[in-house]
Amino acid sequence: MAKIRSSEITPEEVYLNRRKFMKGLGAIAAVGMVSPSSVLPKNFGKEEELTSFKSITHYNNFYEFSTDKEEVAELSGALTTSPWDVEVTGLVEKPAKFSVDDLKSKYAQEERVYRLRCVEGWSMVIPWTGFPVASLLKDAQPTSKAKFMKMTTLMRPSEMKGQKNRWYDWPYVEGLRLDEAMNDLALFATGLYGKDLPNQNGAPIRLVVPWKYGFKSIKSIVKIELVEQMPTSLWMKAAPAEYGFYSNVNPNVSHPRWSQKSERRIGEFRRRKTLMFNGYEEEVSSLYSGMDLKKYF
Amino acid sequence: MKKLFKPAIHILCLIPLFILISDWLNDELTANPIQYLTLSTGKTALRLLTLSISITPIIFLTAKRDLNPARKLLGLYAAFYAALHFSIFVGLDYFFDWELIYETILEKPYVLVGFAAFSILSVMAVTSTKGWKRRLKKKWKPLHRFIYLAGILVTLHYIWLVKSDIREPLLYGAIIALFLLLRIPGIKNVITKFKNRTDSAKAAEA
C-alpha cells in the first residue's frame, strides 16, 4: 500500500480546525448562519466523526483502475483531468459543454458532509464540496419528455487500465430518475476535505447521492444526458439480479453476499445498524411513496 | 533434500501468516482491516486446500512418492487458515452477535456453504493422526475423500462472494475438478494404460 506523505496529511488537520472554528462561529453568531445542507440529518443524534483523509483516498472502489481498492490511489495517478469537458445533452432546451472550471465558477461551491454506504457493507463520512445537481439541470432546462438523467464516465483505457478488463461493459453508466436528480441531496462533487477531488475519488467531477449505495455515485463524469427511457447502468448489466436501477440503501432488501442490515464504519471496530435510505429518510422518502422498494430495489 | 522437504512446507505455509502479522505491525491492514483479514485468510485456506488436493494426482502422474507427506501438512494448514477465517468472521466481524450471524446464515447461502466446508476440514484435521487412522481402519480413506467436497464447497462459497467477475474462483474450481476427474476409475485406467504404453515404448527405444 502506498504511504502518503505527511505534507498530504496536513490539510486534514487544517481542515478539521477550520471546521471547529466555523462551528464555534456559527454558535456565536446565529443558528441560521450555518447552511442546513452542511448539517447532518437530525435522526442520527450526534454529529458523526469524519472518516480520515487517508482512508477516503486509499480505500476506493474504482474499477476503471483496479478491482483492488488498495491499488486505485496509485493507478489513478495516470489520469489526465485537465482539460476536462462535461457535455450536457439529450432532452434539454439548452445543451452545452462546460469545462470543470466553468462549472466551478458558475455554481457556488457548497460543503456537504455525507455518509457514504457501500453495497459491500462498509461506510464512511465524507466532507464533499460541490454544487447541487438541480442547479445544473434548471439551467439546462429538461424538456417535458425527459424522465431520467443518464451519466457516463470517461472512456480512456490508455489511462484507465481497468477498462481493459473485458468482464465489464465499459464505459461506466449510471442514472437517476429526474425527480431524484432534482432532490436537494444530489450533488456534483468537485472536491473533498476542502481540496480538489483526488483522482481516485472520481476527479474532476462526480455524482454524490448519499441515500443510495456508493456505486450509484458515478465518478469522472464526461456526459450528462437527459433521456426518456430508464438507462441501464453498468452494474445492472453485470448482475441484474443483484443491482437494480434504484439501489437505495435499504436494510430490508437483502443482498446475496453482504449484510445490508449492518455495516462497518471505516475506522470503527463494531458493526452498526444500517439505516433506511442511509439515514436520509426525511429528505428522500417522498420520492418513493407508493413504490414497492423490494421490487424496485 | 528429503530432510528439508517438510520444514520447507512448514515455512511456505506460514508465510501468509507472517505477512499478515507484518502488515498489522506496520499498520498496513488497509482501511478495512477486518475485511482484509477475512479475505486473506480465506484465500490462503483455498490455495493450500487446492495444493493438498493436487498431491495425490501429482504422485499418480509422476510416481514421486516422496511428495506424500506434503498432502497431510498442506491439508492441516488449510484447516488452520480456515479456522482463522471462521474465527475472524464470528469474533471480529460480527463480534459474537449471534442474532446477526444467524440472520446472515439464513439469508446468505455462501455462509452456510463455507461453514459446511469448514466442518469437513475440521473433522479431517482431527482424524488426521495415526491413532485415528488406526481406529477408523477402512473408513479412514473414504472419510478423507470428503476433501474434494470441501474443495467444491469452498469454490462455491468464493463464487457467491465475489462482486461479479468470477474468473478467479472458477480457476480454483477448475483445478479441483480436474484433479477429481483424474481419480475417477475409468479415467485413471485410461491414463495408466497410456503411461504404461509410453513407458514400454521408451524401454523399447532404449
Which helices and strands, and how do they pair?
The complex is a heterodimer of chains A (297) and B (206).
Chain A: H1 6-29, H2 53-58, H3 72-75, E1 85-90, E2 96-99, H4 100-106, E3 110-117, E4 122-132, H5 133-140, E5 148-153, E6 173-177, H6 178-182, E7 187-192, E8 195-196, E9 206-208, E10 221-227, H7 234-238, E11 262-265, E12 272-273, H8 281-284
Parallel strand pairs in A: 1-10, 4-11
Antiparallel strand pairs in A: 1-2, 3-4, 4-7, 5-6, 5-10, 7-8, 7-9, 11-12
Chain B: H1 2-25, H2 33-62, H3 68-93, H4 98-107, H5 109-126, H6 130-136, H7 140-144, H8 146-159, H9 167-182, H10 185-205
Helix pairs in contact in B: 1-2, 1-3, 2-3, 2-8, 2-9, 3-5, 4-5, 5-8, 8-9
Provide a descriptive summary of the structure in words.
The complex is a heterodimer of chains A (297) and B (206). Chain A has a single domain (6-288), classed as Alpha-Beta Complex (Sulfite Oxidase, Chain A, domain 2), CATH 3.90.420. Chain A has eight helices and twelve strands. Chain A has helices at residues 6-29, 53-58, 72-75, 100-106, 133-140, 178-182, 234-238, 281-284; strands spanning 85-90, 96-99, 110-117, 122-132, 148-153, 173-177, 187-192, 195-196, 206-208, 221-227, 262-265, 272-273. In chain A, the strands form two sheets. In chain A, strands 3, 4, 7, 8, 9, 11 and 12 form a seven-stranded mixed sheet that branches. Chain A has a five-stranded mixed sheet with strand order 2-1-10-5-6. The radius of gyration of chain A is 19 Å and the shape is globular. Chain B has 206 residues and is an all-alpha fold. Chain B has one domain (2-201). Chain B has ten helices and no strands. Chains A and B meet through α2 of A and α4 of B.
CATH superfamily of chain A: Oxidoreductase, molybdopterin-binding domain
**Main beta sheet of chain B:** none
Largest interface: A-B, 28 and 24 residues
* Structural class by secondary-structure content of chain A: alpha+beta
**Shape annotation of chain B:** globular
| Number of helices in the DSSP assignment of chain A | 8
Uncertain runs of chain B are none
- In percent terms, what proportion of residues of chain B is strand? under 5%
Report low-confidence residues of chain A grouped into runs of 5 or more.
1-10, 25-46
Order of helices and strands of chain A: HHHEEHEEHEEHEEEEHEEH
